[in-house]
């Protein structure tokens, strides 16, 4: 036994061994729970912060259930500070499109100050746009209804939100997901538009993942 | 204004992509555990002198790592990261009394000279238990795991000179505990 390294080796020779596969399985089960819990807290916090800051896009409010939002967030954890991550479509079948990627379902969030004239101009433009195969408009009241149901287990959070803090949204389905980038460029600068966020939805999902 | 037209062309199917990604992530994580668990568990043992507790600490380390796997998986030195998590767990456990008996157990009494051969294996581990946790961590990382002084410093969040100082101090103490000829780290 010349050196300390060997002495350590010898000290460890009584190692009873352990099943690494089992270690991994337990870590995946337990660690997954930890992560989901953490995201639930983070999402509630982010959502509350967005609402407190004026509501703007608040895409998270359109989730059918917070846990669905979490599941999508979980896949790309670092983006929690990105509001776009919060819009993952109401259906768990939809997921948020990363920046620069194709998307099937753009959501056009309107500014709080968007006028009726701007809204009907947008509606007409979308109707005439051959890239758009389906669309619907969600008013503040509709959004608020969904929001209340979605967050019914967090009454304090619900109380902190009014219909006025929620945005109006055009939900769209594109004919071809690869057209999303140019579509977004065409509309991003239109008056009344605050933000455009893309989701990827399967054909079977409702537009924007909103039932 | 509500107008819905059936999409004329199938959109990308998102769900299988996500499931596939999760499965790939879990496989990657499992491969990481399988290739690193033995060394990690052994270092945990050297820190706490108890194989069951070592197993526990190892499990906790991997659980914490899985919880943040998306964020850490591409970092250049995951093994160093795992040591950092492990050592923090050991330190935390020592700080929160009660469960500390094993981590900072009272050192055994037979430390005067080199014990007889069958006990040799335990002698080093027992002697380690005489050292402050920080010094013990330096010895384990530096000499059982063969990490460079720089890496040890990074793992423990210490300066390089602090690591060298602790290392020298810990070796001197071990030498006293185990006898001159027992130790020859260089």
Brief characterization of the structure:
Chain A has 211 residues and is α+β, with helices and mostly antiparallel strands. In chain A, 44% of the residues lie in helices and 14% in strands. In chain A, strands 1-5-2-4-3 form a 5-stranded antiparallel sheet.
Tertiary shape of chain A:
elongated
Shape estimate of chain B: elongated
Find the count of extended strands of chain B (DSSP E, 2+ residues): 1
Largest interface: A-B, 59 and 59 residues
Low-pLDDT runs of 5+ residues of chain A are 52-91
First-to-last CA distance of chain A:
72 Å
The termini of chain B sit apart by 80 Å
Largest sheet, strands/sense/barrel of chain B: none
Estimate percent helicity of chain A. 40-55%
Q: What pattern of helices and strands is seen along the backbone of chain B? A: EHHHHHHHHH
Using the coordinates shown, work out and report the CATH topology of the largest domain in chain B.
Rna Polymerase Sigma Factor, Chain: A
Oligomer: heterodimer
* Strand line-up in the sheet with most strands of chain A: 1-5-2-4-3
The CATH architecture designation of chain A is 2-Layer Sandwich
Strand percentage of chain A lies at 5-15%
**Mean pLDDT score of chain A:** 74
Order of helices and strands of chain A: HHHHEEHEHHEHE
By CATH reckoning, the class of the largest domain in chain B would read Mainly Alpha
Structure description:
The complex is a heterodimer of chains A (211) and B (186). With 211 residues, chain A is an alpha+beta fold. Chain A has eight helices and five strands. In chain A, strands 1-5-2-4-3 form a five-stranded antiparallel beta sheet. Chain A has one domain: 2-Layer Sandwich (Alpha-Beta Plaits). Chain A starts with a helix and ends in an 11-residue tail after the last strand. In chain A, helix 2 (20-52) crosses helix 3. Chain A has helices at 4-11, 20-52, 66-75, 83-86, 116-128, 140-150, 155-159, 180-188, and strands spanning 95-96, 105-110, 132-138, 169-174, 193-200. With 186 residues, chain B is mainly alpha-helical. Chain B folds into two domains: 19-103, Rna Polymerase Sigma Factor, Chain: A, CATH 1.10.1740; 106-186, Winged helix-like DNA-binding domain superfamily/Winged helix DNA-binding domain (Arc Repressor Mutant, subunit A). Chain B is 70% helix and 1% strand. Chain B has helices at 14-48, 51-67, 69-72, 78-95, 100-103, 117-129, 133-144, 149-156, 160-178, and one strand at 2-3. Chain B is elongated, with a radius of gyration of 23 Å. Residues 1-11 and 99-116 of chain B have low confidence and may be disordered. Chains A and B meet through helix 1, helix 2, helix 3 and strand 3 of A and strand 1, helix 1, helix 2, helix 3 and helix 6 of B. Strand 3 of chain A pairs antiparallel with strand 1 (2-3) of chain B.
């Amino acid at each position: 036994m010349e050196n300390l390294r060997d002495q350590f080796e010898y000290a460890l020779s009584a190692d009873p061994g352990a099943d690494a596969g089992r270690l991994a399985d337990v870590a995946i089960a337990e660690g997954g729970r930890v992560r989901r819990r953490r995201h639930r807290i983070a999402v509630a916090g982010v959502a509350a912060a967005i609402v407190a800051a004026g509501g703007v896009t608040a895409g998270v409010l359109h989730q059918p259930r917070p846990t669905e939002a979490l599941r999508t967030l979980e896949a790309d954890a670092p983006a929690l500070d990105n509001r776009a991550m919060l819009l993952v479509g109401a259906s768990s079948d939809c997921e948020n499109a990363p920046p620069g990627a194709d998307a099937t379902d753009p959501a056009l969030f309107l500014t709080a100050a968007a006028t009726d004239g701007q809204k009907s101009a947008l509606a007409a433009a979308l109707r005439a746009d051959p890239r758009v195969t389906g669309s619907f408009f969600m008013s503040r009241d509709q959004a608020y209804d969904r929001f209340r149901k979605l967050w019914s287990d967090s009454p304090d959070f619900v109380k902190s939100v009014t219909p006025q803090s929620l945005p109006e949204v055009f939900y769209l389905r594109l004919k071809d997901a690869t057209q999303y980038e140019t579509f977004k460029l065409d509309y991003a600068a239109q008056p009344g538009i605050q933000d455009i966020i893309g989701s990827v939805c399967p054909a079977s999902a409702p537009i924007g993942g909103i039932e | 204004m509500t107008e819905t037209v059936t999409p004329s062309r199938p959109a990308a199917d998102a769900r299988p992509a996500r499931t596939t990604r999760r499965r790939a992530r879990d496989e990657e994580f499992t491969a990481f555990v399988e290739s690193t668990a033995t060394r990690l568990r052994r270092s945990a043992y050297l820190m706490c002198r108890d194989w069951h507790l070592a197993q526990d600490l190892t499990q906790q380390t991997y659980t914490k790592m899985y919880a943040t796997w998306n964020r850490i998986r591409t970092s250049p030195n995951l093994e160093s990261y795992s040591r950092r998590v492990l050592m923090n767990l050991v330190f935390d456990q020592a700080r929160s009394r009660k469960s500390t008996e094993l981590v900072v157990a009272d050192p055994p009494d037979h430390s005067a000279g080199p014990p007889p051969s069958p006990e040799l294996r335990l002698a080093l581990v027992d002697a380690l238990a005489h050292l402050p946790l920080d010094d013990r961590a330096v010895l384990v990382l530096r000499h059982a795991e063969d990490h460079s002084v720089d890496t040890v410093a990074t793992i423990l969040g210490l300066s390089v000179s602090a690591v060298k100082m602790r290392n020298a101090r810990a070796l001197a103490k071990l030498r006293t505990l185990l006898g001159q000829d027992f130790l020859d780290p260089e």
